[in-house]
Amino acid sequence: MGHYVLYNFKGIFITLIIAIIGGVLFQLLHIPVPWLLGPMIAMVLGKNMLQWDFAWPYHLRNTGMMIIGYTIGLSMTLAALREMALQLPTMLLMTVLLMLLCAGIALIVSMLSDSDYRSALLGSIPGGLTQVIVLAEETKGINLAVVTVTQVIRLMMIVIAMPLLVLMPFFGQHAGDNGGTAALPIETTVSLFPHIILFALVGVILALLGNKIHFPTAYLLGPMIGTAVLQVLGFTGPHLPGFVINAAQLLIGTHVGLMLKASEIEHKGRTFSLAIGSGLMLMGGSVVLSFILGWLHDMSRATALLATAPGGMDQMGIIAHAIEADLSIVSGYQLFRTFFIYFAIPPRF
Length: 349
Prior knowledge:
This protein is mainly α.
């Protein structure tokens, strides 16, 4: 037992060092969202090409998600919530159109591969990664390897591509210093207390409670909902220093990077090609939907793209925060789609 604990600690330490090196390197290269992308790419290369033994417990990923959930919750002011309520019909329209696109992509993938349609559909659905994989595990006749690989590759492609797309001149967005997460003055760090204690307690309690009742993405939504409610009640949540946001990105990016295990995949060439192809089609479809969304509502093109992007709410929230897009709108559309998929898809399987 003692040897296992020591080995596990060693694996976590090595993983952390490599993740930090990846983040520092990406920041020096001025790559957008460096502390999310750097650790993620470092894990993919180290795990699959160098065959290093990494370890990254889920509670580290969950900690990062709670921090991002709190940050998103800060954007959920009364004015933002009213605007989100007004856009509910559009949220439904965008979600349905994206689901139809996923269904079409799944049909193409199933025709070009040995996968059945249901496996291809679960691989294409842009829901919460964990929820989709759990659903695949619990459904008979589903090719779990195909679903996992397709979902992870799609997520990685989107996390890498979206920061680059939204910073193109066409989308008219720019990143803040250090990807929008520069360290704040020491006064801000000190002023976190005692106000942050209430928000932290509420966020952690709701995250644990949500996880216990199998709430979708509980470690993200719990703190987000708790923070939003406290703000509506009149409490003011302090903004987190940049290094805390960077740490949260590292915790999440490292976890995502370790999810891709090439050694467990059969027919690697075909599987990867189809996964990349379906990811490109989904991204292309989301760009078209973002044009429609921007035409229907007065919002920046970058905000519209991140709102319709088929990625996770935590990753899109990080990118929206980094480039100073409308975080409440992005989170609102991503949250609506998460719930729609969570409640609409399982009964069909």
